[in-house]
Amino acid sequence: MESKRQQKFASLLQQDLAAVFQRDLPHLFPGLPPGISTVRVSPDLGVARVYLSLLLVKDSEAMLRDIRDNSKAIRQALAKRIRKQVRVIPELNFFLDDSASYAARMDEVINTLHIPPAPTPDDETDTPPENKRPKLFADEDE
């Protein structure tokens, strides 16, 4: 579980990285800039794992590769934004966030399941009589 400090720092990184992608370095990302779904920070605040949402990008692997290749420039642009707020600029590790595609796949699997309907109350064989109490123990008297 992350501490409050890690959560606050991760939130700061998420907001400022989004601004870096949209305003400072838009020339690195043709089309739409990548969305940042989550940022996880190590306890010493030295390493940040940035999970990117690349749903609208046709070739997400190529875009992720480009982002990783330009991680030094991204880190420098981030440093310009947060240098007065933090002591150490974290190392950025970028990962593809596939939770949305995973959720869509699980939705598809669940929709293809065949679930039989629940028994109707008209079935007298499965329901116990109303006046007779079910036995809880084998040696219980009737």
UniProtKB/TrEMBL annotation:
Q: Where does this one sit in the cell?
A: Cytoplasm
Q: Which residues cross the membrane?
A: none
Q: What's its job?
A: One of several proteins that assist in the late maturation steps of the functional core of the 30S ribosomal subunit. Associates with free 30S ribosomal subunits (but not with 30S subunits that are part of 70S ribosomes or polysomes). Required for efficient processing of 16S rRNA. May interact with the 5'-terminal helix region of 16S rRNA.
InterPro entries cross-referenced by the UniProt entry: KH_dom-like_a/b, RbfA, RbfA_dom_sf
Protein family according to the UniProt entry:
Belongs to the RbfA family.
Q: Can you say what this protein is called?
A: Ribosome-binding factor A
Which region ranges are annotated with the description Disordered? 114-142
Relate the assembly described in the record. Answer: Monomer. Binds 30S ribosomal subunits, but not 50S ribosomal subunits or 70S ribosomes.
For this record, an example GO cellular component is: cytosol
Record-linked SUPFAM superfamilies:
Ribosome-binding factor A, RbfA
Q: What is its main location?
A: cytoplasm
Q: Which UniProt keywords apply?
A: Cytoplasm, Ribosome biogenesis
A GO molecular function for this record? ribosomal small subunit binding
Please list the GO biological process terms of this entry.
maturation of SSU-rRNA
Q: Which gene encodes it?
A: rbfA
Instruction: Spell out the Gene3D superfamilies in the cross-references.
Output: 3.30.300.20
Amino acid composition bias (Basic and acidic residues), ranges on this chain: 129-142
